Amino acid sequence: MNSSASLSGQTAIVTGASRGIGRAIAISLSEAGAEVVVNYANSPEKAEEVVQIINSSGGKSYAIQANVADETAVEGLIKTVLERSGHIDILINNAGITRDGLLMRMKTEEWRAVIDLNLTGVFLCTRAVSRSMLKQRKGRIINVTSVVGLMGNAGQANYAAAKAGVIGLTKSSAKEFASRGITVNAVAPGFITTDMTKGLEADQILSNIPLGTFGTPEQVAGAVLFLASSPSSGYMTGQVLQVDGGMVMS
Ligand code: NAP
Prior knowledge:
Blueprint: E1 11-14, H1 20-31, E2 35-40, H2 44-56, E3 60-65, H3 71-85, E4 90-93, H4 108-136, E5 139-144, H5 148-151, H6 157-177, E6 182-189, H7 202-206, H8 217-228, E7 240-243
Parallel strand pairs: 1-2, 1-4, 2-3, 4-5, 5-6, 6-7
Helix pairs in contact: 1-2, 1-8, 3-4, 4-6
The structure holds NADP nicotinamide-adenine-dinucleotide phosphate.
């Protein structure tokens, strides 16, 4: 465990933590002392591997399968964590998918699948966890959006709409919850090396990244850890922190 641990005694849920960015966030929060709930949808072995990594290095973790686009599954996830851990202090809304295609040819199912998980999933998890966070008058919610939600992207109308929606949701929930000690912020990664970006044409993308490389899941996790930590980010809410190699400068 990290000697500068600041999250000990806290319980964090990371949605979509079996792979990629979510996995790095789960490991990083546990290194800072949090008990981490590894949520996943379809990869039980990969989720168990993350739990193993955490538990074998002195941390505390368990995995829960739940499709976070499904209201009943989300209610079940939060109920189970509250029963098992007693409290939820940190929620990281990270789970996400892409179903890319030009708008003219995009199937309604492709539009809906992305909105249902990447936007409605964030709403469902936030609403489900808010009851207990409001009661304890304390909580951190961090939503993983994307620079695509800020700048748009040809071939990703569904994804960009969902991620822009997450930014609006972040700001609205930040305003609703601020008086109750709950902060809500977002992290907007650029291009990060994970399964999601496998197969993308790197050369064209790299020419638009001032720092000249894709980012790593650990670099996104660093920003999330900062937003989850007290008191360092305690005076921040409703903000979008970009981790994008300088792609979008506003
Ligand atoms: P990834 O490697 O494809 O991993 C996606 C994760 O989401 C997996 O753990 C997956 O679980 C989980 N998941 C998928 N559907 C789910 C569902 N219905 N319910 C619960 N979990 C579900 O993706 P990533 O690149 O790490 O992306 C993580 C987040 O960062 C996403 O929100 C993505 O939009 C955002 N992001 C990524 C990039 C990038 O360049 N990679 C850039 C900007 C933003 P299973 O393994 O069980 O399927």
